[in-house]
Amino acid sequence: MMYDVDLLKENFRKNPFWFRFLNAGWKATYPLGTKLKLDKDDLIRTAKKTTGLSDFGPDFNDEPLDRLLWSINHEANLHPVGRFITRQRYVSLLSIRLRAAYYFKKYPQILEQPLYPAWIIVGLQRTGTTKLQRLLAADPDHRVIPSWEVINPMPLDLNLYQDQFLTPVFSGARQHSPSTVYPKPGDRRIKMANLSVRAVRLISPGFFAVHPIDALQPEEDILMLDLSFMSTTPEAMMPVPTYASWLERSDQSDAYAYAVKIMKFLQWIHPAKRWVLKTPHHLEFPDLIEKHFGEVHFIWPHRTIYESVPSYLSMLTYNSLMFCEKVDPEQIARHWVRKIGYMLDKALDYRLKDGNGNKFTDLWYHDLISSSMEEMSKIYKLDGGLTPDLIRRFQEHEVSHPHRKYGTHHYSLADFNLTQGDIDRHTKRYQDFIAKLYDKHQRP
Q1: Alpha-carbon distance 443 to 283, whole Å?
Q2: Is 178 a member of any domain?
Q3: Which domain holds residue 392?
Q4: For 222, which of 41, 113, 256, 281 could close a Cys bridge (C-beta 3.0–4.6 Å)?
């Protein structure tokens, strides 16, 4: 059953009138040639013209982009604003790769450095991963990728950070000068990210109750995989089943290898002791994480599956409303309930191999919300324990970023015509694992 945006259940606040009016008016002018092109060659030409650069580097593969664009053009049913946002984003991703190739060629020492050790949050969507990463970001030893930087990891001005590359490498890591200012005055990327945050707030007023966006707070590093056009981001925004099926069957090693190159650039520009990363996408690929990232420890938050799944499906519905003409919550559910089960199975396949269990620290969502310092202490057993200074930093962050700061997120399985049995069919193995882990069937 297809839902018109006006008929979506009350839990999903429809896009504002002005947004629907703009889309309707713009679409009415399509016969005049105003429909934006989503064509690979046109996107590449535009990126080259925008940057003044032409070399994507030796590891650029355009097949994923080809497959993604076919799926978008034939399956996604984007409204005009959705097409505009998508085109701008893909031109930006191509432009980032052009600027990255410029830096890697001019400053080969970037790629010669080892990657920092990493704590990687791999919890399922809506299990407290965002709260956890933003807490850990308050530790000055940690390198995270804030929203403004993950959108644009490469500076727009190729000369702005030139002096950073004149600093030699000592003992495999750059020394961090306390006087280093990052980002530098004149870096336009924060301003651009703040504009994006305001745009989301205007287009989807209810979205912030689901996932608060902050230009200065860390975001998912899945956007590093977007640079290779091999991630689950597109299928979380719009229906692209052909691309999603191809992606699931594909070797994503190249995408992870390229993400490491970008991270080496970021740690050179702004050094730290350890990476703290997170995205549910990594549940599917812990083996690639270990292969390409080196020294890693996985942090896996858990939550009752009957809460986390409908919460995530609700978030996906909000996403789709920002891009698509017609939104079908039941189609979203069919695709993602199976996908979630698949991701969990892949993660468990890796974790249950001999010795891999020691690479994981488990947290419980409701404990993270109600007694976060106890949960943080479990993590910091890996690093000498919590200090009074860290506890103060974490508590200050929680005061300034309270739970449900932007309102309450309402959702239910019924919104998607789902039952607990539908969830069980795809997640029983994970539920059995949690029951054994916590010695309960479902922890309250």
Answers
A1: 21
A2: yes
A3: 5-438
A4: 281
Structure tokens at 300: 């896996």
Give the pairing of strands 296-302 and 118-121: parallel
CB-side neighbour CA atoms (13 Å) of 327: 30
pLDDT digits (tens, 9 = 90+) for 150-160: 999 999 999 99
Query: What is the chain's percent helix, strand, coil content, to nearest 5?
Result: 60, 5, 35
Strand partners, 275: 118, 143
For residues 128-150, average pLDDT: 94
| Higher-pLDDT residue of 176, 352 | 352
Q: Using CA atoms, how far apart are residues 319 and 204, in angstroms rounded to an integer?
A: 9
Cα separation, 27 vs 20, whole angstroms: 11
* Cα 205–chain centre separation: 20
Per-residue confidence band for 3, with pLDDT thresholds at 50, 70 and 90: very low
DSSP-assigned beta bridge partners for residue 301: 363
**pLDDT exceeding 70 applies to what percent of the chain?**
89
Residue 65 lies in a domain: yes
Tell how many helices (H) and how many strands (E) occur in the chain. 20, 5
CA atoms of 404 and 132, how far apart (whole Å): 15
Which is it for the CA torsion 405, 392, 221, 197, positive or negative? positive
Those residues with Cβ within 8 angstroms of residue 143's Cβ, 6 or more apart along the chain or in another chain? 116, 266, 267, 270, 271, 272, 273, 274, 275, 276
The CATH number of the domain where 14 resides is what?
A: 3.40.50.300
Measuring CA to CA, which residue among 226, 260, 256 is closest to residue 113?
260
Quick check: pTM over 0.85? Answer: yes
Query: What pLDDT band is residue 409 in, cutting at 50, 70 and 90?
Result: low
Residue 10 pLDDT greater than 50, yes or no: no
Give the chain's domain count.
1
Residue with tokens 């003992």: 171
| Cβ atoms 11, 314 nearer than 8 A | yes
Count other C-beta atoms under 10 Å from residue 398's C-beta. Answer: 16
Would you say residue 443 lies in a domain? no
User: Which segment of 2-16, 38-52, 385-399 scores lowest on mean pLDDT?
Assistant: 2-16
Whether 283 is in a domain gets the answer yes
**DSSP helix/strand/coil, 303:** coil
Return d(Cα 422, Cα 337) in angstroms, integer. Answer: 8
Name residue, tokens 């005055």: 185
Q: Which of 307, 314, 286 is nearest to 298 (CA)?
A: 286
